[in-house]
Amino acid sequence: MSFLIHEVVYFGRCLPFMIMDKIPYFRQYKIQEQKMPTLAEQWACARLVLLSHFTVELPQIWLFHPMAQYFGLSTSVPFPHWYTMAWQIALFFVLEDAWHYWFHRALHTPRLYKMIHKLHHQYSAPFGLAAEYASPLETMILAFGTVGIPIVFCAFTKNLHVITMYTWIVGRLFQAIDAHSGYEFPWSLHHFLPFWAGADHHDVHHEKFLGNYASSFRWWDAVMNTEAGSASGAAKRAKAAAVKEE
Ligand SMILES: [Zn+2]
Ligand SMILES: [Zn+2]
């Protein structure tokens, strides 16, 4: 059931972007306009993603249920209050983002990059399907932020419902696919929530290979001075260099 939800959400969410690729009107919102993914590229990507879903993610999802129940995940009525769901999901977004920032940054050290992370960077102009295009080891390391953190939370608090867990995972999947979509719209969320990362944040990461390591928010890269591409990041680094020279 969990596996099925994941597949439907993943490919379902990618579909609108694949359709947009075929409609010239949407070209104006494409971040790296000159690089359109070809159908062959998308198909090759989908094949590897599917393979990884069945060989890496399916066994993990299988293990997830008994493990979560062991740690006290609630699967029965009453359903949690919307307020409880909201603060728990917000907390997971913040914690996952921190996990992602540090492990993703570590994956960019030369050895780990070559061994593990290079595959994910095959597409310098990402598209939705590329979100989970990664080596099995990377999938396991980064997925811990999405799945492991709530389990640890549940082990300590004994206060987590499976509905909250599903909603969180769907939200996180949407976030990851949108970040890789290659499209930036005037109505994109980060125009209203300036600390939300959005597509343009992660797109630059794929284009430049350096900086912008966080997943959902902009604060870690801002505080740790690892922003890529943006004028503010460049200005900050120039200022830091000037201070060093003095
Ligand atoms: Zn990377
Ligand atoms: Zn990526």
TrEMBL record:
Entries under InterPro entries matching the protein: Fatty_acid_hydroxylase, Sterol_Desaturase_Related
Extract one GO cellular component term from the record: plasma membrane
Q: Is Cytoplasm among the key words of this record?
A: no
Give the matching Pfam families: FA_hydroxylase
Query: What range(s) does the Fatty acid hydroxylase domain occupy?
Result: 90-226
Q: Where in the cell is it found?
A: Membrane
Q: Which residues form the signal peptide?
A: none
Write out the entry's keywords from A to Z: Membrane, Transmembrane, Transmembrane helix
Q: Name one GO biological process term.
A: ergosterol biosynthetic process
Which protein is depicted?
A: C-4 methylsterol oxidase
Native species: Capronia epimyces CBS 606.96
Q: What is the lineage of its organism?
A: Eukaryota, Fungi, Dikarya, Ascomycota, Pezizomycotina
